[in-house]
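User: Second chain of the day. Same drill as before.
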Amino acid sequence: MRLSGTRFVRIFQWIAPVLLTFLVVFGRGFFGAPMGWMALIGLFVGPVVALAMYIPPIIVVFDRDAKAARSTRLFYDIANWLTWAALLVLMFTLEDGGDSPPFGSVVSTWGMMSSDAAGSVFAVALIVAFLGWLGTIASAIVGVVDSRSTRL
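Assistant: Same format as last time:
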């Protein structure tokens, strides 16, 4: 597997779990959408998500080739970018459905799309974020195995 040659992912992977989880939970309020009960739920779910997002960077620490090059592997970078982008989409499309009527997402508050459309985009982004997270774990493990295998 090829190294990417960039250091951004290597550094941002330690900041992203806390920053992006915070933005998904509280970013709605920054952009004008009402917070509602989702903020309270996010206070309990957010730390679990942040801890889960720290699993791939901890695995990457054991990648000897990436450590020597002070970089990360290309597939790991792609999976991280995909996960981070999906989390930002989650921030803009997360709705608070616990109240009657439900508070809209940021994009529905701005009038860019309906609440139903935002909910559909949220569902797709949630699946993409989860698959991207699985991809970061898989690519991190493959990188560690590749760096520790004996080459003939």
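The longest helix spans residues 115-148.

User: Great, on to the next one.
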